[in-house]
User: Fold these one by one.
Assistant:
Number 1:
Amino acid sequence: MVHPDARPAVRPSQQDEVAAAGSELLGGPAGRRAGPSGHRWPPVRIIVLAMLGTFVLGMVQKLPCARRGWFEGAATQYTHACYSDIPHLYTARGFADGLIPYFQRIPEETSATMEFLEYPVLTGMFMELASWFTPSAGLVDRPGQYYWLVNAGLLLICAIAIAVCVTRTQPHRPWDGLLVALAPAFALTATINWDLLAVALTAAALLMWSRGRPLAAGVLIGLATAAKLYPLLLLGPLLLLCWRAARLRAFTRTLGGAVGAWAAVNLPFILGATEGWAKFYTFSQERPVDFGSFWLILSHRTDWQWEVESVNDWATLLMLAGCGALAVLALGARRRPRLAQLAFLVVALFILTNKVYSPQYVLWLIPLAALARPRWRDFLIWQGCEVVYFLGIWFYLAENAGASGLPPGGYHLAIVAHLLGTLYLCVLVVRDVLRPEHDIVRRDGSDDPGGGVLDGAADAFTLRRLRRPARGPAAAAVGVPGASAPAAPPADRP
């Protein structure tokens, strides 16, 4: 099998109809006389510039709020779809007053509903860091505006890190990072909240795993989980794939790194500010059915009064059932799935079954989607559905604030668009797993270019096995069912 770094870089304009059409803006698809991609302008440089442009456009979209909408009533920030949590929480969570998160209780006059910061500790530290560089109310009229700008600068670093990591995770497919850099929903949601911190750490973890560094990957997963809970889900696919490929030692190192990094960040707060540290977890459990979930549609459309405990139980049950199905898929598919495919599916499952879906949660999926299903048509269909939801929630809130907006029925349609768009991409990824000839990443005979120690490894255990599969390169050469790297499959069909 050809080493992934030795393969020429895949040019999407030669494989993807939408990419080929879009390339006409820049001179058309690359021809046979095109020079090597790394000669003068390597892909990573172009993708970083594209990410800068996308991020700046997202900041421009927030300008109506940055000028006055965040500070002069609720209607403007909803009708202009430029809402952000960042300037509001600067005051509402005590950063403007110099309170130390988790260790100091938020006064009731500052926040009547929240006694402690309801974010994981690494995100709280990020928020606190930004507050150190924000001028106080005695120096400027609207410090919340400056707090948003400082955070935007820090989040831009995270955005660039995400683009670079995705570009380099699958060495012969660097242009897949352009999907992230040009994602419309990325621009719209990047500065709503602090999710990009966890997304950047998760993308870096996948890069480290692809480079055969499981311990570093584990440390980054642990740090990402200390910033947001969802990166913990990646350990499930890693366990299943390492079990199938008999690479459990690598998984153990990753698990140890994750536990150690998470504990190193959290233990000082667990021991010194237990009540404040626990607020994120208790808030997540006590939070009622909220925006963006199918649970909200059910609660609006039926007479069933959903208790918080009941929704938690049902959501957990659905999540566990979905994880069981993914385990069967991972261990029973004819060919071992790629890590990015299972990572995308498990995070999408969490989003689909959760009792709340905030618009910025799409950021969790964008890098995973670019690695799992790098097809522009499907990616843009999904992104279009997310843009519909992004507009739908703000106009629904505008209606509730007394402005002209979207009634509940219209908002329900926006939620359905989000759910169907995500399910559409999930179905395509599952099809790619079950029928690897449709997987564009494997078109050139690759196994799992982002799989690290899994790439090219023969199967040691599968649910389909009737006899112990053959091992090693010889098995892959003759297409034995247990092999993970058969000959190049036929071209992907649209």
Number 2:
Amino acid sequence: MTLAELAVEAGKDADAYVAIVDEASTAHARWAGNALTSSALTADTRLTVIAVSSDARGTAAGVVSQRGAVDEDAVRTVVAAAERAARTATPAADARPLLTGDAVPASPDWTEAAPAASADVLARFATGLAATFERARAEHRLLYGHAEQRRHTTWLASSTGLRLRHVQTAGVVDLTAKTEDGVASTWSGTGAADLGAIDPLPMYEGLSTRLDWGRRRVELPAGRYEVLLSPSCVADLMLRLYRAAGAKDAADARTVFRGPDGGTRIGERLTRAPLTLRSDPHEPGLRCAPFVTARGSADVAQVFADTVSVFDNGLPLSATEWIRDGVLTGLVQTRHSADLTGLPVTPQVGNLVLEGQGAGRSLAEMVATTRRGLLVTSLWYVRDVDPRTLLLTGLTRDGVHLVENGEVVGEANNFRFNESPVDLLGRVTEIGRTEQALPRERDDSTPRTAMPALRVEDYTMSAVSEAT
């Protein structure tokens, strides 16, 4: 019997139960100054129990989680705590009947153990990293960063018969290159299902080119610029848009997606650019859980909390378009918000793809046709200013370059920027080639992304930043 099954069968004092067990196994390595500094294998287990109780006041849910060693005694302790939380909780507005095993077929691999990350994948990656260190030393550059291979297995069981399992595998490389005197630096990141398939040498070669650009320093004032945003920058901005795209929050006039006369902006054109923003749990290279796994709103990095509901656990996910050819076509809906708005149920999916029509050009090709503008390769410390307009502020970091007449002519100073990703879409004049992208600001809950580079007019660099 799995821990998840044990949890739902241990419950006695609530009406229904959902149990989610997460087992994460990670192999990771870090390096600094062209030398490996650490490597390790780590494992983590988390049990989340949701107890559901109904009385004359309504239906409430108690949610309790525990990380670390989880044995049978720990399971019973967590279940009892969830039952107590349910008895004292305020009735939930989003309460809906839990899904049943009859409505959602069980995962065929339900009883299989969690696959573990292996040190072998680090050994394969380290071979390429050693060659990259040798090249960097010869060119008087220093490399810093980390790599990891993560295998995350989730089991979801309910007292109503749900038995679902998903394994998420991801490899990530985060690489920073610096000049030997430490004056200049630049960053790149990438992801793949298998860390062993990532070669760090081409990553370094791209960073080395950027450091060469930095041999000439250009001081520029704050202002509005034509900007080429790398796929990583676009990922950071579009994830902010996605996290603010809750339908209920929009209908309650709390976000940028509120309608002018109530309701939402669904059906409104956001941009003339032929951009489509979509999610699909079966997207090649970006596969993610094909069912809702909600451990409570605090588990998801959201501006507001009405985009997930613990009562929707196990709800099947499918391909969803949020923006189609520049028109807003969907917002994140729970079953509760869909009842309120009268719109289809479109839950949040764990990946995000932005694409234009046709193949699009590479970022290098876009640079070659730029008369004058800024190439921005990464963003940092992006924070919300005004949720009603989705105005964000943040910093450029590790690479802002001035482009003139199709060539990069030097490294510019960093800036603080003020932009709304929704308004920004309306100023897109060119869409590059969509590729798997790694956002600079991410955590374990960040959706997997594929993004193009974008050419944007009048990007607001509000102040010169002293950051180096």
Number 3:
Amino acid sequence: MTVAPDTTHALGGPALPQRRRIHTEIPGPRSRELQERQRAALPAGVGSALPVFVEAAGGGVVVDADGNSFIDFGSGIAVTTVGNAATGVVERAAAQLQRFTHTCFLVNPYESYVAVCEELNRRAPVAGPARTVLFNTGAEAIENAVKIARAATGRPAVVAFDHAYHGRTLLTMTLTAKNRPYKHGFGPFAGEVYRAPMAYAYRWPTGPEQCAREAADALVELVDRQIGAENVAAVLIEPIQGEGGFIVPAPGFLSAVAQICRDRGIVLIADEVQSGLARTGRWFAIDHEGVQPDLVTTAKGLGGGLPIAGVTGRAELMDAAPAGGLGGTFSGNPVSCAAALGVFEEIERGDLLARARAIEATMLPALDRMRQRHDVIGDVRGRGAMIAIELVKGGDHTPDAELTGRIARSCHAAGLLVLTAGTYGNVLRFLPPLSLPQDLLEEGLGILADAFDAQA
């Protein structure tokens, strides 16, 4: 069968008109037609938060098959951090496509793989000389970080945290805390995985002032008494939890975790798959705490929309894996590597670290004003362009997932793409691309405020 190229669709990228425009119901007729095809062709386990089919995206907007243009507060779950179809990403990837699409780095290496590793080695907050190995997805990166930690320490156990999300493969699904929809019915799970309390200040039973110390004490109890420190290879933590609800650990907790690991020869792995690479106003979210992990995982925003992931760590740990023990057929694909180099270029050329901090400076005060008007907003939290609000029943901390869904749907109908998250399904999370124009950021916040006025 010959498939002719489709030249009728809109072009995306920075030149896409930066405006919100809704002229059909959501989803529109063309998206509904495509939904019918989806139901016939795909399994029921594959769903969509906003079932409008995309034709183009760029800057701060996503355009659907019916010509509706949405303000993007999702970035494809923190993937298009530098903007969808960003110039540096597209130009480098397109040039690489014309040269070669694949050799497998394990067969014939190429310079762009090395260059991406050099960039990550230079920026990752690990102590001393660093090494990087590339993969395809965040889950692969986490799995391989655990492999490296086990090889380096000769120990089997891994500690993760409440509310964590690390992926959907067997090991990363085991490391993930939430049952539905990620784990239910998919067991049995991997062994030697243990779970400690996260320093979740908003929900800590004795109050936020005690949170960091008591959570650190609980980790020590788990490691020393229940597992045995001599059996623990790694502690795995998200510096800001993603799917768990953008939980920023209580101040001092990350540094306490790092010290606990250092004292016991345990490898500290920072999962920066969602929070890394300029998203929080620093290259890595853990930089805000001044903590140096032993290994760092990256993915999502690293490829600007193309699949690529990495594990970066201290050289002596990274070199512990035996020859042939790391890698994969598609790991560090040359087109994805070219795109990743374009991401680094876009971040530096556009001063996107500063842009993330400016987004925070706009969003946090605006959301706090909404919180003061609506007691259903229990907490406002986050850093940079990784911000969330937690919704509760007025007057207490009881999670309100139903209201969260209503607010999200109201935003979608008005042309604002937002995502939900949280162990209890009661968090609205905001991940705008750093290319989002200021006027669209403010317009989007206005839509959100209107949704609360109408629904809360």
